[in-house]
Amino acid sequence: MKDIYDYGGNPAKRHLTIADIIALKGKRKMTMTATDSPEEATICEQVGIDVITVCDRDIVEIRDAAPHIFVTAQLAMTYYPTPDDILRAALKAVDAGADMLYTMRGFGVVEMLVKEGMSVMGHVGLVPRRSTQIGGLRAVGKTADEAMLILEQCRRYEDAGACWVEFECVASEALKEISKHTSLITHSIGAGSSADIIFLFMEDICGDNPNPPRHARAFGDLLSIRKQLSEERLRAVSAYKTAVDDGSYPGAGNSIVMPAPELEKLREALDKL
Asked: Nearest Cα to 28, choosing from 207, 188, 195?
């Protein structure tokens, strides 16, 4: 556990720092997932997940739930339209305990944030929100020319000062070769095992996605459990309605009983009205 001060000047402890992650490059694979709730964040910290990524607007409650895990804050692509908006949101996120910022915006945005002393992650390969530019959702980097374009993007991220980049749905061979030519920390989602960090969404890990992508593997079966819960809820609500309709609920066991003498006194008082 390392003692640090976060960007907001708050004393904190972290299992991993940026320097640790850089030092681990090429030495061991690290794990990363996205969390949407304090419960998920707590679980990740308990089992030793290395990195979690969260929406910047959720950072406070996530950090409270998992105070020591490395947290990346996602700056929503369209939520902060201007550079000032982005900078304001970024400062708010790191003040709340984010260790790194993730943005799909341009290299200029990355450079702006880095100049303010913040650690930043970019995104190459399939960027789903820009998928119309490449003909839809598809694998990227299956040709040498396309792989070279990805390397060029990595170098532009390096020039902008980023220290980390996400490879999404990139041919595994392309990632393996590109990794030899970039200093960036790499994380893979659907891009094979050559990255420094292997990323998988929580819903895919837990088997909670009805339409999982090809690159995902379920390590649980939450979807079936949710279905069972839904069926049990339906059964219970239906039984409740039936019981009210037929008069079996509420019964004597569900009611408060007035002592007989008090009931008699009440009736006498009411008769005098």
From this structure: 195
Catalogue the active-site residues: 168
The CA-to-CA distance between both ends of the chain, in Å, stands at 76
Give the C-alpha separation, 225 to 200, whole Å. 20
For residues 199 and 208, give the distance between their C-alpha atoms in angstroms, rounded to a whole number: 16
Q: What is the mean pLDDT of the chain?
A: 96
Task: Specify whether the CB–CB gap between 66 and 42 falls below 8 A.
Answer: yes
CA atoms within 13 A on the CB side of 35: 29
Among 209, 173, 212, which Cα is nearest to 191's?
Answer: 173
Contact 115, 139 (CB under 8 A): no
> Which residue has 């040498």 as its token pair?
144
> Minimal CA–CA distance to 101: which of 45, 189, 166?
166
The H or E element that residue 32 is part of is strand 30-34
Query: Which run of H or of E encompasses 6?
Result: none
198 backbone φψ class: left, alpha, beta (φ>0; ψ -120 to 50): beta
Q: pTM here?
A: 0.89
Q: Which domains does the chain have, with CATH numbers?
A: 2-220 (3.20.20.60), 225-271 (no CATH)
Percent of the chain's residues with pLDDT above 90:
96
* Predicted pLDDT of residue 126: 96
Q: Are 98 and 59 in contact (CB under 8 A)?
A: yes
Q: In angstroms, what CA-CA distances link 17 with 4, 91, 209, 239?
A: 9, 19, 31, 54
CA distances in angstroms from 182 to 85, 149, 261, listed in the order given:
30, 13, 88
Q: Which uninterrupted H or E stretch holds 84?
A: helix 83-95
Q: What is the pLDDT of residue 77?
A: 86
